[in-house]
Amino acid sequence: MTMNTPAKSSLMTILTRGFRRRCPQCGTGRLFRSYLKPVETCHTCSEQLGHIRADDIPAYFTIVVVGHVVIPLAVMAEQWYHPPEWLHFLVWIPLTLIMTFSLLPCIKGSLVGLLWHLSLNGDETQ
Fold first, then answer.
1. Cβ proximity of 123 and 53 under 8 Å
2. Residue 1: pLDDT above 50?
3. Which of 88, 58, 56 is nearest to 71 (CA)?
4. What backbone phi and psi angles, to 5 degrees, belong to 55?
5. How far is residue 12 from each of residues 2, 8, 117, 126, measured CA to CA in Å?
6. Which residues lie below 8 Å from residue 70, measured CB to CB, with a gap of 6+?
7. CB-hemisphere CA count at 13 Å for 99?
8. What pLDDT sits at residue 124?
9. Rounded CA gap, 46 and 55, in Å?
10. Dihedral sign from CA coordinates of 7, 11, 13, 16
11. What pLDDT digit, counting tens, does each position of 75-88 carry?
12. Mind giving me the DSSP string for the chain?
């Protein structure tokens, strides 16, 4: 490391910054310019972020997280209360959609931060 290169933050800090959808380098600049589209460069610290591709892995992690929350709750509700099927549909489908659409950018931000921390671009040529 040269004198001009700042030290990278801890991995947990970088993952937290990504989860908050902030730049992994400075923690203040926005990571996305739209719902899931990363900015090319951070407007605060000028860190290059547009080349990092997370591809499908944020969707897989989101499915795992949401599935591990919704499925046990639905099974417990069925075992304890035996609600009618229409109530299951009324509760679990919206909950699943809300959780998925709210967690997906946060999880993608964390994974972009992880790729940035590991100096990976997300392409398979590395």
1. yes
2. no
3. 88
4. 50, -125
5. 24, 11, 10, 24
6. 92, 95, 96, 99
7. 17
8. 62
9. 23
10. positive
11. 999 999 999 999 99
12. --TTSPPPPPHHHHHHHHHTTB-TTTSSSBSBSSSS-B-SB-TTT--B-TT---TTHHHHHHHHHHHHHHHHHHHHHHHHH---HHHHHHHHHHHHHHHHHHHHHHHHHHHHHHHHHTT--S-TT-
Task: Give the per-residue pLDDT at 125.
Answer: 63
CB 120 within 8 A of CB 24: no
Going from the C-alpha of 79 to that of each of 20, 74, 82, the distances in angstroms are 36, 9, 6
Structure tokens at 95: 């909950």
Amino acid at 53: R
Token pair for 85: 């099927």
Predicted pLDDT at 3? 47
Question: What's CA 65's distance to the chain center, in Å?
Answer: 11
